[in-house]
């Protein structure tokens, strides 16, 4: 008997899982309230890189806490009442910034990122989307020696995990990125990073491949879940019931909301971020995405223009948008690169779904046969969707995943 599986969520994670399960012989229905790749997986900076193995809750976070008290930095903003209402998440997030814990997480994420980059390359070729891929790496830029020195811990972790990096001085930065204003004194160039010029379009192309291979996409909003015999039932907003043997929840930041309907509570933080596209005022261009560590933003060359993405705003998933941090990031970016625009009228807002240890959940829910989870990919989900799919599909078919899946198990949060 062919097993029927419903995958909820058609972001990069859900689409990758749906494709992988189809290849393993499941009958797969992919469900989303929107078209594939229109939410978080649309608006990210499009970077795939092993440098993301260092989670943002690392010992530097503790060191920088006094700086964050003013709540005015471009890198991090927070809405205090949200953090107070979610003390369980806040406290655990801070406790996981311990050095030993960070090394554990870095080792796990490095495995997932490396596997995902291989899997992405396979999918990019299968979807015929090689044109979207650039392999020129990406750069962390520092405006002064103090900023560079403050990032020493991150560089130590890069060295420990043997990343291909090069430290650049001001002249070397200008050689690689001649259109940047000369305000940076040092940079770390992550050489083996890759980038994509339209993340949403790539997810849509993977979804098209899924349908071309025989998968079924349905555009419906899932309202609640329930157990049904030996399988699962998804009730949609329009009152339909979709029954399956296995159910995968890959709803990114919205996963905890739906899981509450079956009394499963997951401590989730929402690292909200904004973006807008700009043009070059002078015709100069950037060859690769850059992260201005001192300015607290990322600028990435995209099909739609230069995409400026902001740092972190910790607030509730659907709280009203606030644009102060974004405006501050735009001023900083204009000091570095001659931007004009923006292309759109209002900024896009997305939520990086983050669990307290900054690792996604990939695996089975204890004591709920047939219910599988794949969410919580914080800053790295666009990169790690395909590796997540590979691990989850192995677990669902009783095979050994190519990397250790234990650091990602649901038992970390669900007894
Ligand atoms: C500003 C910013 C920059 C980033 N930069 C990078 C980067 O450079 N590299 C990187 O790897 N990652 C980056 N990320 C993180 C990355 O974008 C996310 O981790 C990733 O997109 C999460 O994918 P997902 O599939 O889990 O979630 P999503 O893409 O959000 O997909 C979830 C889907 O669930 C659907 N959905 C929700 N509720 C329901 C419902 N009730 N019924 C049906 N469907 C529903 C939504 O419509 C959505 O399509 C960035 C994120 C942000 C915000």
UniProtKB/TrEMBL annotation:
Coiled coil: none annotated. It is an enzyme of class 1 (oxidoreductase). Pfam families: DAO (PF01266). One of its GO terms (molecular function) is oxidoreductase activity. Residues 5-395 form the FAD dependent oxidoreductase domain. Its EC number is 1.-.-.-. InterPro entries: FAD-dep_OxRdtase, FAD/NAD-bd_sf. This is FAD-binding oxidoreductase. It comes from Thalassospira aquimaris.
